[in-house]
């Protein structure tokens, strides 16, 4: 089913910078929807270093990656942004004029379209995408027999499931899918796992009880007439091979950041970054802004605090597109009753 949504602004990327932009836009009565390919908010902070301490967020002597994301989510709560997770923005079409911009934004997964007056690209280093195992012809089974994420567990009910990997995703999905799968097999290169110890223990208990299988080795080939997967050939360390029957294979080899479709949006690019001015953080297309790690300008520092500043200035220009007839008054949150009402504290 495809949906159509009308809003003031679409923010591409729900990393820390996209999240704080919601706050700055919200103070100016600008509504937004955020789209992220990940299943959760927080970008690099939540995906790459949730438990690591950050020491250079103004006002926080120390906060973890996830702690910062949690605080940002609490801070933007009064503005009720709508999140669209597990969706990658595929295209931006220009419908309006440079004076009165209007855009149609489309996502790849279920083709949701958005009409909006401005687009803020807060896409960091690009979209997080799954690392694929080096198996011949694996693409032919993608979406039918090979999946890199679990969007709906029910899809795997009564299936013969092969999970490949030794990290948290592989182990979490092993213990979660085992009860509904017809038979579940976990495959890893060696008998040591990087996942949380209690999840590894659960998996080992299931193996000991004969309720799932664990094999060591690597997938060397897939079997079955594409796109129907019937089995995976496993090569062991000693070079011997055997086949595991499976209807679906879920490789969890981690994520990598790729620029993705941004290159096709008609924007000027410089070494895979989007050049912007430092007054409004607008791109070469009026109405499309780029903030955070994805942009470039003289003196750019890829720091979270830079992205916060960029979002605040971009919001000022967005206001002119969304409310061309309204004059913007500069106000402090400390002393403005009108801002405090928006924040629900007055
Ligand atoms: P990101 O956090 O990269 O978020 C961008 C989001 O956009 C991602 O979730 C991505 O999936 C999504 N996206 C991209 N393209 C699309 C698309 N087409 N469709 C849908 N979604 C899309 N910075 C500091 O200031 N202090 C530190 O101490 C610090 N420590 C760090 C430690 C590590 C290990 C790392 C890796 C980085 C660190 N950084 C630090 C850098 C900081 O994390 C980044 O500057 C920050 O995350 C940038 O935020 P962002 O919102 O611009 O992008």
Automatic annotation (TrEMBL):
<dbReference type="InterPro" id="IPR023753">
    <property type="entry name" value="FAD/NAD-binding_dom"/>
</dbReference>
<protein>
    <recommendedName>
        <fullName>Ferredoxin--NADP reductase</fullName>
        <ecNumber>1.18.1.2</ecNumber>
    </recommendedName>
</protein>
<dbReference type="GO" id="GO:0050661">
    <property type="term" value="F:NADP binding"/>
</dbReference>
<dbReference type="InterPro" id="IPR022890">
    <property type="entry name" value="Fd--NADP_Rdtase_type_2"/>
</dbReference>
<feature type="binding site">
    <location>
        <position position="293"/>
    </location>
    <ligand>
        <name>FAD</name>
    </ligand>
</feature>
<feature type="binding site">
    <location>
        <position position="36"/>
    </location>
    <ligand>
        <name>FAD</name>
    </ligand>
</feature>
<keyword id="KW-0285">Flavoprotein</keyword>
<dbReference type="InterPro" id="IPR050097">
    <property type="entry name" value="Ferredoxin-NADP_redctase_2"/>
</dbReference>
<comment type="subunit">
    <text>Homodimer.</text>
</comment>
<dbReference type="InterPro" id="IPR036188">
    <property type="entry name" value="FAD/NAD-bd_sf"/>
</dbReference>
<feature type="binding site">
    <location>
        <position position="334"/>
    </location>
    <ligand>
        <name>FAD</name>
    </ligand>
</feature>
<feature type="binding site">
    <location>
        <position position="128"/>
    </location>
    <ligand>
        <name>FAD</name>
    </ligand>
</feature>
<feature type="binding site">
    <location>
        <position position="49"/>
    </location>
    <ligand>
        <name>FAD</name>
    </ligand>
</feature>
<feature type="domain" description="FAD/NAD(P)-binding">
    <location>
        <begin position="8"/>
        <end position="298"/>
    </location>
</feature>
<dbReference type="GO" id="GO:0004324">
    <property type="term" value="F:ferredoxin-NADP+ reductase activity"/>
</dbReference>
<dbReference type="GO" id="GO:0050660">
    <property type="term" value="F:flavin adenine dinucleotide binding"/>
</dbReference>
<keyword id="KW-0521">NADP</keyword>
<feature type="binding site">
    <location>
        <position position="44"/>
    </location>
    <ligand>
        <name>FAD</name>
    </ligand>
</feature>
<comment type="similarity">
    <text>Belongs to the ferredoxin--NADP reductase type 2 family.</text>
</comment>
<keyword id="KW-0274">FAD</keyword>
<feature type="binding site">
    <location>
        <position position="89"/>
    </location>
    <ligand>
        <name>FAD</name>
    </ligand>
</feature>
<keyword id="KW-0560">Oxidoreductase</keyword>
<dbReference type="Pfam" id="PF07992">
    <property type="entry name" value="Pyr_redox_2"/>
</dbReference>
């Amino acid at each position: 089913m495809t949906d159509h949504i009308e809003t003031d602004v679409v923010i591409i990327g729900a990393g820390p910078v996209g999240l704080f932009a919601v706050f700055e836009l919200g103070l100016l009565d600008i509504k937004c929807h955020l789209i992220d390919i990940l299943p959760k908010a927080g970008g690099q902070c939540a995906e790459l270093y949730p438990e690591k301490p950050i020491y250079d967020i103004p006002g926080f002597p120390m906060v973890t990656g996830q702690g910062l994301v949690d605080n940002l989510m609490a801070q933007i709560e009064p503005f009720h942004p709508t999140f669209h997770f597990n969706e990658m923005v595929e295209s931006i079409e220009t419908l309006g004029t440079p004076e009165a911009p209007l855009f149609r934004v489309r996502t790849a997964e279920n083709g949701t379209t958005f009409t909006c007056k401005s687009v803020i690209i807060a896409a960091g280093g690009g979209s997080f995408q799954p690392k694929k195992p080096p198996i011949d012809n694996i693409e032919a089974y993608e979406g039918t027999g090979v999946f890199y994420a679990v969007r709906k567990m029910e899809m795997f009910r009564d299936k013969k499931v092969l999970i490949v990997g030794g990290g948290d995703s592989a182990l979490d999905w092993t213990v979660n899918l085992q009860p509904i799968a017809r038979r579940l097999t976990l495959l890893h290169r060696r008998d040591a796992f990087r996942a949380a110890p209690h999840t590894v223990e659960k998996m080992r208990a299931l193996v000991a009880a004969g309720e799932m299988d664990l094999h060591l080795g690597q997938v060397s080939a897939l079997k079955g007439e594409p796109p129907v997967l019937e089995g995976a050939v496993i090569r062991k360390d000693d070079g011997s091979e055997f086949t595991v029957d499976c209807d679906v294979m879920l490789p969890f080899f981690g994520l990598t950041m790729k620029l993705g479709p941004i290159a096709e949006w008609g924007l000027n690019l410089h070494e895979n970054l989007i050049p912007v001015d430092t007054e409004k953080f607008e791109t070469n297309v009026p109405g499309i802004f780029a903030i955070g790690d994805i942009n470039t300008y003289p003196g750019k520092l890829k720091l979270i605090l830079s992205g916060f500043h960029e979002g605040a200035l971009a919001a000022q220009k967005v206001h002119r597109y969304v409310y061309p007839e309204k004059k913007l008054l500069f106000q402090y949150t400390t002393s403005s009753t009108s801002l405090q009402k928006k924040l629900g504290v007055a």
